[in-house]
Amino acid sequence: MRYKVTLIPGDGVGPSVIEEAVKVVEATGVEIEWEVVEAGEKVMEKEGTPLPEKVLDKIRETKVALKGPITTPVASGFRSVNVAIRKALKLFANVRPAVAFEGIPSLKYPGLDLIVIRENTEGLYSGVEHYVDEDQTIAESIKIITKKASERIIRFAFEYARKNKRKKVTLVHKANILKFTDGLFLEIGKRVAEGFPDIEFEDKIIDNMCMQLVKKPYLYDVIVTMNLYGDILSDLCAGLVGGLGVAPSGNFGEEIAVFEPVHGSAPKYAGKNKVNPCATILSAAMMLDYLGEREKASKIWQAVREVIKEGKFLTYDLVEEGKPVGTKEMGDAIAKKVKEL
Question: Which residues contact 311 (CB under 8 A, 6 or more apart)?
């Protein structure tokens, strides 16, 4: 079967890591027709918008996209393209695996396998914020939590756990202080959990959860939470398993899915053949799994495991001793390993 997939190279290191992901996917033998479109800083310069409508239309047409990281200006400039894509396409669920790979020198928790599921469409990331006074000395942001979106993401987490033979779902909140917004999310979580008696359910306050993840991460399995908390927790979990270089993600809606690495565009490394391509390669593996090519997706995960364990072709972020290789060389090693499996 031949699939059509929208391909968005992105900014900074995006094109180079996307190139390696495409190479590895092609090594599996899965036939994909890549529909390449551009979004981000360069498009902003040319067209006055970082996210042209034709990009969204192409994703709607193919239903699946693989995206490189896109630069988001800090404190000023255009709003996040990543957030805009998720909202425009109603990609309500952000799934971020944190998997420990043997051979990573900084690894402190061997065998760790966590899933962070983050609500994508509301919370503080709704972007409803403004200055209260004319002098712009007071700013206000509104946190929006709805019953519909909360139930949808929590149910998604339980269904994900059941489908993937996971045993526990932990809901993370700050309902002890934010009694209406987080309180609503927690209340709905408890109600949804009643429909999944085969899955253990618990809730944790966000600050305590951060500490528990650092001290006792093996106690957790699937974590479901609101937008801001999920963004923070997923980076924390990535740190537990070796960093953002091995942190993939998928954004899921009812009919559309977009896959992308968790890390940013790292413009200072653009064109230098330096950064770790694994996050993007593993995002592509998640994409293949979504397309129904689970066996081929598993081959990519296994290839990444073996290349990291062998330790001969590792980028700078994965090396403590010895000479690191570049983005392309690590991608080549993974593609070769896929063909051997």
Answer: 103, 322
DSSP assignment of 189-249, as one string?
A: HHHHHTT-TTSEEEEEEHHHHHHHHHH-GGG-SEEEE-HHHHHHHHHHHHHHTT-GGG-EE
Domain ranges of the chain: 1-100+245-341, 122-240
User: May I ask the CATH class of domain 122-240?
Assistant: alpha beta
From the CB of residue 63, how many other CB atoms can be counted at a distance below 10 Å?
Answer: 18
**Is 122-240 the same fold as 1-100+245-341?**
no
Lowest model confidence (mean pLDDT) among 28-42, 61-75, 81-95, 209-223? 61-75
49-70 pLDDT, tens per residue? 999 999 999 999 999 999 999 9
* Whole-angstrom distance, CA of residue 155 vs CA of residue 159: 6
**Beta strand 257-261 pairing with 64-67:** parallel
Q: Are 18 and 10 in contact (CB under 8 A)?
A: yes
State the maximum Cα–Cα separation within the chain, in Å, rounded to a whole number: 64
- Average pLDDT over the chain reads 95
Instruction: List active site positions.
Output: 125, 174, 207, 231
Residue 164 has a CB neighbour count (10 Å cut-off) of 10
Asked if CATH classification 3.40.718.10 holds for the domain at 1-100+245-341, the reply, yes or no, is yes
Q: How far apart (Å, rounded) are the C-alpha atoms in residues 132 and 244?
A: 37
**DSSP type of residue 133:** S
Cα separation, 330 vs 31, in Å, equals 22
> With pLDDT > 90 as the criterion, what percentage of the chain qualifies?
89
